[in-house]
Design brief:
Elements: H1 34-46, E1 61-69, E2 75-77, E3 80-81, H2 85-93, E4 95-98, E5 101-105, E6 110-115, E7 120-130, E8 133-140, E9 145-147, E10 154-158, E11 164-171, E12 174-178, H3 180-189, E13 191-195, E14 198-205, E15 208-214
Parallel strand pairs: 1-6, 7-12
Antiparallel strand pairs: 1-2, 2-3, 4-5, 5-6, 7-8, 8-9, 10-11, 11-12, 13-14, 14-15
Length: about 220
């Protein structure tokens, strides 16, 4: 079942917490456009008992209805930001990464999602010290709580101007870009270890070591 209805209205976006109190949006907002509301209802039914098994579903492909996740983690529908945190959290549970694309999947429909960088953003980090070393736990912008470990590794990709961009695997090929402030915290917590004869600077968490950069290049990150 595919409902790809369009809406014409546009709304200038500013984060709700960045506005003056008298300018902030009310907690009660108008209903979302029909296609988006229907998709949300299907997602709610599918995930009523936890994360739905999106990897098992193969519904009709409804194509591109204008869903997008921006680099800062903001979700958009037809260039209008989705301002309901509960709705974006719900959509995050039915997000799936297929070869070369991202899709939102329910038992009855599948739609394309454009992802500008990573679908999630890691916004908080807590450090637990255990007998076996530190354990790094992250919270994403859609309230996933993820421990950096063997099943959820950290990786560091080349960024602009020779910098690094850190990513954390959340689930099923879906990653969270670690926010810049947290990246500086990671760099400060790093240590040097020998990996296959090469001195590497990286992070330890839950008994794993995640190489970041050659130790000889660490000063370039300062």
């Amino acid at each position: 079942m595919c409902d790809t209805g369009r809406v014409n209205h546009r709304r200038k976006f500013m984060p709700n917490d960045a506005r003056r109190p008298e300018d902030r949006l009310p907690e009660t907002r108008p209903p979302l456009p029909g296609a988006l509301e229907a998709l949300g209802q299907s997602a709610a039914k599918a995930g009523a008992r936890g994360l739905p098994p999106v990897h098992l579903w193969n519904p009709p492909d409804c194509g591109d209805i204008g869903m997008r996740i921006a680099r800062d983690g903001t979700w958009f529908y037809q260039n209008t930001p989705i301002l309901r945190p509960a709705m974006t959290r719900l959509f995050a549970t039915i997000l799936r990464r297929d070869p070369e694309r991202y899709v939102l999947v329910t038992p009855v429909e599948m739609v394309l999602v454009e992802v500008e960088d990573a679908p999630f953003l890691a916004v908080e980090m807590a450090v637990e010290n255990s007998r076996d070393g530190p354990i790094l736990r992250f919270r994403t912008n859609v309230d996933d709580c993820v421990t950096a470990d063997a099943a959820h590794p950290l990786r560091f990709a080349a960024g602009p101007s020779g910098g690094l961009k850190p990513y954390l695997l959340v689930r099923g090929g879906l990653e969270a870009l670690v926010s810049r402030p947290l990246f500086y915290d990671l760099v400060a917590r790093g240590e040097t270890r020998d990996i296959d004869g090469v001195s590497m600077y990286g992070l330890a968490s839950a008994g794993q070591f995640f190489p970041m950069i050659a130790a000889s290049e660490i000063e370039d990150l300062a």
